[in-house]
């Protein structure tokens, strides 16, 4: 089955036409987002900040980069507040990832980082375009079994991930359209990060601490 990006390429006469078609498709995908689902993720993160709960973000490949970017942006957004969000990317520690992959298998690389660290009420945000990455699903299963709140950013048809998490945002695309899914996941990073940054700044100004 042809992905939408492949269809755009097939119908494009040149690079300019492809760029135009890609961006038009991306705009349509963005407009299809469930805004309330994004707002619920923001509310979960604000609650984690209020209750001093930890947030663990994970993903593979491009989603690993998004996980680390989002962890950085959430930390920066809450810097200077009464407390900063305690957030970590489980995709960032190369030593931990390669040790677990070598000793236990790649499906365990995220679970092993959650063992002994995860507490009930903590948040685990899993990012996967397909929603079917075994190591991501193992981590979500572990988090659900240990009383964590699980969130997901998925794509395509949502895979198993969309049905496993407590809440999340599903980017509806044809299977294989990794580019648009990962583009939208990065947009979610900046939407969420900017909202938290402005919300925290407003709270400081209201108290006269800013």
Radius of gyration, CA atoms, in whole angstroms = 18 Å
Query: Average pLDDT value?
Result: 95
Which ranges are low-confidence, i.e. pLDDT below 50, for 5 or more consecutive residues? none
Kindly report the spatial arrangement of strands forming the biggest sheet: 2-1-3-4-5
How many strands?
5
Distance from N terminus to C terminus (CA atoms, Å) equals: 54 Å
- Note the main sheet: 5 strands, parallel
Could you spell the SSE succession in H and E letters? HHHEHEHHEHEHEH
CATH class of the largest domain: Alpha Beta
State the CATH architecture of the largest domain: 3-Layer(aba) Sandwich
Query: CATH superfamily of the largest domain, called what?
Result: Glucose-6-phosphate isomerase like protein, domain 1
How many structural domains are formed by the residues? 2
Classify the secondary structure makeup into a structural class: alpha/beta
Which descriptors would you attach to this protein?
5-stranded parallel sheet; alpha/beta; Rossmann fold; 210 residues; 9 helices; 58% helix
């Amino acid at each position: 089955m042809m992905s939408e990006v492949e269809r755009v390429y097939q119908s494009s006469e040149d690079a300019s036409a492809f760029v135009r078609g890609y961006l038009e498709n991306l705009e349509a995908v963005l407009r299809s987002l469930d805004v309330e689902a994004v707002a619920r993720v923001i509310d979960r993160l604000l609650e984690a900040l209020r209750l001093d709960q930890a947030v663990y973000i994970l993903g593979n490949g491009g989603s690993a980069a998004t996980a680390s970017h989002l962890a950085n942006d959430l930390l920066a957004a809450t810097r200077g507040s009464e407390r900063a969000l305690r957030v970590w990317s489980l995709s960032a520690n190369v030593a931990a990832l390669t040790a677990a992959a070598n000793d236990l298998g790649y499906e365990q690389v995220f679970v092993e980082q959650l063992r002994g660290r995860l507490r009930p009420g903590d948040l685990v945000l899993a990012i996967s375009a397909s929603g079917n990455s075994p190591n991501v699903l193992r981590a979500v299963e572990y988090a659900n079994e240990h009383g964590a709140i699980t969130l997901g950013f998925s794509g395509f048809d949502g895979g198993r991930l969309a049905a496993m998490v407590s809440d999340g945002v599903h980017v509806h695309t044809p299977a294989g359209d990794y580019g648009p899914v990962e583009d939208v996941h990065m947009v979610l990073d900046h939407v969420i990060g900017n909202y938290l940054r402005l919300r925290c700044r407003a709270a400081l100004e209201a108290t006269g601490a800013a």
